[in-house]
Amino acid sequence: KRLVILISGRGSNMEAIVKACAAQGWSAEVAAVISNRPDAGGLQFAAQHGIATAVVDHKAYSSREAFDAELARVIDGYAPDLVVLAGFMRILTPGFTAHYARRMLNIHPSLLPAFTGLHTHERALEMGCKIAGVTVHFVTAELDHGAIVMQAAVPVRAGDDAKSLSARVLAAEHQIYPQSVRWFLEDALVWDGDRVHHRDGMA
Ligand code: GRF
Q: What Gene Ontology molecular function terms does this protein carry (predicted)?
């Protein structure tokens, strides 16, 4: 099977998936890593690992529709079975999300449905939450709302700031994102209406 991973920045989740794919011998390949930012740090890691890279710079397009159309054209050139959003920081149009329905995953650094959108760690700290975490979900038109594949919780500790909390959450991200992608690739995810489960009841 073929994966295309979309990034906007450092790409540590992309890196975790590339490494798990190799280390665990998935019958899958990362066909391409695509960034909307030419300076995304993760592009270098991908290129060094022999993975095709592409940049579709959102600043070169006058509308979200035009950007998404070009992005979809580039993605589909790699004929992926699954599109993986890994720190891809763009709002996507309904047409784009519909095109990749049930074959595009995202990772969001909160326990959804709490804290959709940006600055999740700051907001969790502000609320005095004692548990924080991360969610892998399928992407739908509504931001951070698609079917949940996997979640991991981490403790919030006294004295945490957004930096220390995000580091603890990120370590959990690097565990559950590769695992979620693996479940998809193994055809282990079963749909029940708008919800998705692991076929052996693991989630
Ligand atoms: C992660 O925290 C992810 O959950 C969020 O953006 C960050 C991306 O980090 N959406 P990286 O680029 O994967 O290192």
A: phosphoribosylglycinamide formyltransferase activity
The whole-angstrom separation of Cα 203 and Cα 192 is 13
Burial of 18 (0-12, 13-18, 19+ CB in 10 A): buried
Nearest CA residue ID for atom 1, ligand 1: 87
Please give the backbone phi and psi of residue 34, each rounded to the nearest 5 degrees, phi first. Answer: -120, 135
Report which protein residue has its CA nearest ligand 1's atom 6. 87
Which pLDDT does position 203 carry in this prediction? Answer: 79
Spacing of C-alpha 146 from chain mean position = 12
11 carries a ligand binding annotation: yes
CATH 3.40.50.300 is the classification of domain 1-100: no
Q: 12-23 vs 162-185: helix axis angle to the nearest 10?
A: 40
Residue-wise pLDDT for 52-81, tens only, equals: 999 999 999 999 999 999 999 999 999 999
Residue whose structure tokens are 């079975």? 81
Start-to-end C-alpha separation, the chain = 23
Topology of domain 107-203 in CATH is Rossmann fold (3.40.50)
User: What's the CA gap between 132 and 109, in Å, rounded?
Assistant: 8
- C-alpha separations of 53 from 31, 43, 134 in Å: 9, 7, 27
Ligand 1 near 9 CB (within 6 A): yes
Same fold: 1-100 with 107-203:
yes
The ipTM estimated for the assembled molecules is 0.97
Is 80 exceeded by the pLDDT of residue 174?
yes
